């Protein structure tokens, strides 16, 4: 148990965060704000940066603590001591959030959300794998109303791609490491003598080519570090005097005077956090919810905005009842409906001799480790890459009998570790993500103890089963391709999943889909307010004059690929729209 005790020791050292420059000269509680933005995730940070460009006062409230070292984050293994990096800044450590042996990992996730949602600075971008795919036109044209269609977001897309560079070769020496699985996948997928092969492209240079194409995975990593909005947009925002970031501060609810948001009620959730009321500038200030699918849902309900039966349930909760607006001020909107996420299924083959990397042991490793030395010295080597490594990534577009196109993304990975493939073999795994075009939707609910719960997961709930058919079609052709390539060329290889004797359809029907952690859709955006709509194309909550939602909740269905770039583009577009609304409301 040496491993655990070293960790406990590290974690008991108090984190010193005095370098955080965000603390204001006077308390945010005692002034009024032109914009209060709630949540520092993929959307909240870019939005705060763009709105602060106007010179108006912007307060960004975040319930969590500092993740990246740049903002005071100090949680790190011993070998990162004395550097400006936290564990969250090192690409090779990203997947350790899934590794139970890292004591304290549970504190990364929002305790009041049943799904995996990150409650720290940066939100999902603070902890995620950094995969970054610019949106396709269909991502907007198939899901969003006029105002947020592809031609409307063209300039926003240009701005987002300028602020967030991407790479498929993150190591600063320009090399890729541990690649034999990735290259074997690439060779098999693009084998032109095999049935149904894929074309190899560079995903972010060929945005609309998503039918039987493969690409190396693309990441927003920069300079061998994590990168993303925390390393770009938040840096520029923080250079402005009219911008303040406040962490460890949870927004309980929006305070309303009928259809006007007057401010927010906040509760401190850690040292330095704020408790009390923070007001917006009367007559012109706006409150913007960027708290993610789960956070925004909860705040809206606690502000008396959502399905009447949900608010009714809250009203029977003694503490909440006293805080809710009077019943006649409730706004009945389908908040929490239209929940979307991509179901994952895991398939795989056993292949001998894959490169393997003991990424799980990096946490308790030391500076004698040559890879650690290389990383610290030159931001190069396996630690500058995501570990366990993934790639390539592929897309398949299937036309269903209902006339809809559905995009299935396949993530390919390879390796060998004790967790997944005991014994001597290696594995090559491929995971499906049923993305753009699928029609199944689910629903969120708030339980009596104020936990956000998934009342209905959005997986294969469509009555006629077209979502499942699309997955099966794509998986069938991919299996045939792998059977005609890897299984022929690699001695001793065999299918791990589906296992011998189990048919693909039987396997897929029996497997419980995993979440892709790509939740969207719960504050549905319409061109204007009406049936089924929560926000209009000005991002305003229906029935409110100065309350907005700008985050994954307003994206009506999953995009083609991992979604964070879409949320950044939505934030860039929302900034244009909100700036265009003018001062008074
Ligand atoms: C482990 C993991 C890996 C992922 N990998 C990828 C990937 O590689 N590529 C990709 O594209 N996507 C990935 N995603 C998904 C992506 O990170 C999210 O979809 C995205 O971050 C959502 O953006 P958002 O702005 O809607 O909300 P979030 O990024 O979730 O941000 C919401 C923020 O609001 C804060 N907040 C919530 N409630 C309150 C409150 N009441 N008061 C104050 N603050 C509050 C939260 O703490 C959080 O910081 C991953 C997600 C996870 C969880
Ligand atoms: C926030 O709270 C955590 C403990 O939950 C603490 O370690 C940290 O110093 C506080 N402040 C910031 C800015 O993270
Ligand atoms: C750490 O410092 C280096 C060198 O100054 C800088 O390039 C990098 O952006 C910093 N990273 C973080 C996370 O602060
Ligand atoms: C993968 O690379 C390792 C060395 O990094 C080598 O030992 C192994 O044989 C390679 N496997 C295959 C299947 O090429
Ligand atoms: C996708 O490409 C395949 C192979 O080229 C083709 O048969 C299929 O019709 C295409 N699907 C769509 C929806 O365009
Ligand atoms: C909240 O209630 C749900 C069931 O309604 C339960 O599963 C969960 O464990 C509870 N959480 C807490 C923190 O009490
Ligand atoms: C692979 O192809 C062989 C014939 O070469 C066939 O017998 C086998 O059923 C196929 N396996 C799968 C999983 O498709
Ligand atoms: C390419 O596919 C053909 C046909 O299935 C097969 O014979 C050949 O071995 C494959 N080559 C590789 C490198 O997979």
Which key phrases capture this entry?
585 residues; alpha/beta; FAD/NAD(P)-binding domain; Cholesterol Oxidase, domain 2; 2 domains; eight-stranded mixed beta sheet; five-stranded parallel beta sheet; 19 strands; globular; disordered N terminus; binds flavin-adenine dinucleotide; binds 2-acetamido-2-deoxy-beta-D-glucopyranose
What is the fold's blueprint, element by element?
Blueprint: H1 2-12, E1 32-33, E2 35-38, H2 44-52, E3 58-61, H3 124-127, H4 137-141, H5 150-163, H6 180-189, E4 199-200, E5 213-215, H7 233-238, E6 243-246, E7 249-257, E8 260-268, E9 276-280, E10 286-289, H8 292-302, H9 308-315, H10 318-323, E11 343-351, H11 370-378, E12 390-399, E13 405-415, E14 426-434, E15 443-446, E16 452-456, H12 466-484, H13 486-489, E17 494-497, H14 504-510, E18 514-515, E19 547-549, H15 564-580
Parallel strand pairs: 1-9, 2-3, 2-10, 3-6, 4-5, 10-19
Antiparallel strand pairs: 5-12, 7-8, 8-9, 11-14, 11-17, 11-18, 12-13, 13-14, 15-16
Helix pairs in contact: 2-15, 5-15
Residues 479, 483, 495 line the site of one 2-acetamido-2-deoxy-beta-D-glucopyranose.
Entry summary:
It comes from Ophiobolus disseminans. This protein has 585 residues and is of the alpha/beta class. It has helices at 2-12, 44-52, 124-127, 137-141, 150-163, 180-189, 233-238, 292-302, 308-315, 318-323, 370-378, 466-484, 486-489, 504-510, 564-580, and strands at 32-33, 35-38, 58-61, 199-200, 213-215, 243-246, 249-257, 260-268, 276-280, 286-289, 343-351, 390-399, 405-415, 426-434, 443-446, 452-456, 494-497, 514-515, 547-549.
């Amino acid at each position: 148990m040496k491993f655990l005790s070293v960790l406990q020791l590290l974690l008991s050292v108090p984190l010193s965060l005095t370098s955080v420059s965000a603390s204001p000269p006077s308390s945010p509680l005692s002034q009024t704000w032109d914009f209060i933005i709630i949540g520092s995730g993929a959307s909240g940070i870019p939005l705060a940066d763009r709105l602060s460009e106007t010179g108006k006062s912007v307060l960004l409230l975040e319930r969590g603590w500092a993740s990246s070292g740049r903002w005071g984050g100090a949680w790190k293994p011993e070998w990162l001591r004395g550097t400006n990096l936290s564990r969250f800044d090192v690409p090779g450590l990203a997947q350790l959030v899934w590794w139970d042996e890292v004591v304290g990992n549970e504190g990364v996730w929002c305790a009041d959300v049943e799904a995996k949602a990150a409650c720290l600075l940066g939100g999902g971008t603070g902890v995620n794998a950094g995969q970054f795919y610019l949106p396709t036109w269909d991502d907007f044209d198939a899901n969003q109303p006029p105002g947020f269609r592809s031609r409307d977001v063209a300039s926003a897309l240009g701005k987002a791609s300028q602020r967030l560079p991407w790479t498929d070769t993150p190591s600063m020496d320009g090399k890729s490491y541990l690649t034999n699985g990735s290259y074997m996948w690439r060779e098999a997928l693009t084998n032109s003598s095999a049935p149904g092969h894929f074309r190899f492209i560079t995903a972010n240079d060929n945005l609309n080519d998503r039918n039987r194409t493969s690409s190396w995975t693309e990441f927003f990593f920069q300079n061998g570090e994590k990168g993303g909005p925390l390393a770009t947009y938040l840096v520029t925002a923080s250079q402005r005097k009219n911008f303040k970031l406040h962490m460890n501060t949870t927004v309980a609810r929006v305070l309303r005077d009928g259809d006007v948001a007057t401010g927010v009620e906040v509760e401190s959730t850690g040292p330095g956090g704020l408790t009390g009321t923070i007001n917006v500038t009367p007559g012109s200030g706006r409150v913007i919810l960027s708290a993610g699918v789960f956070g925004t849902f909860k705040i809206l309900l606690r502000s008396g905005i959502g399905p009447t039966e949900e608010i009714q349930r809250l009203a029977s909760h003694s503490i909440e009842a006293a805080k809710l607006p009077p019943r006649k001020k409730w706004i009945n909107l389908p908040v929490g409906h239209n929940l979307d996420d991509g179901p994952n299924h895991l398939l795989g083959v056993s292949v001998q001799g894959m490169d393997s990397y003991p990424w799980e042991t990096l946490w308790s490793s030391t500076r004698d480790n040559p890879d650690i030395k290389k990383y610290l010295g030159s931001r190069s080597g396996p630690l500058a890459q995501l570990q366990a490594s993934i790639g390539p990534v592929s897309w398949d577009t299937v036309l269903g009998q209902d006339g809809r196109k559905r995009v299935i993304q396949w993530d390919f990975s390879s390796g060998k570790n004790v967790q997944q493939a005991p014994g001597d073999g290696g594995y090559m795994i491929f995971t499906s993500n049923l993305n753009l075009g699928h029609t199944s939707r689910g629903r969120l609910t708030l339980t009596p103890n104020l936990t956000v719960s998934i009342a209905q997961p959005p997986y294969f709930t469509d009555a006629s089963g077209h979502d499942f058919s699309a997955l099966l079609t794509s998986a069938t052709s991919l299996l045939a391709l792998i059977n005609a390539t890897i299984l022929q060329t690699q001695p001793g290889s065999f299918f791990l999943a589906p296992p011998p004797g189990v048919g693909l359809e039987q396997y897929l029907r029996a497997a419980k889909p995993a979440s892709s952690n790509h939740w969207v859709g719960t504050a549905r955006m319409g061109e204007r307010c009406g049936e089924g709509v929560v926000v209009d194309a000005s991002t305003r909550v229906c029935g409110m004059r100065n309350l907005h939602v700008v985050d994954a909740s307003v994206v009506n269905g999953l995009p083609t690929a991992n979604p964070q770039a879409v949320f950044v583009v939505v934030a860039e577009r929302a900034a244009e729209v909100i700036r265009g609304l003018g001062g008074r409301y």
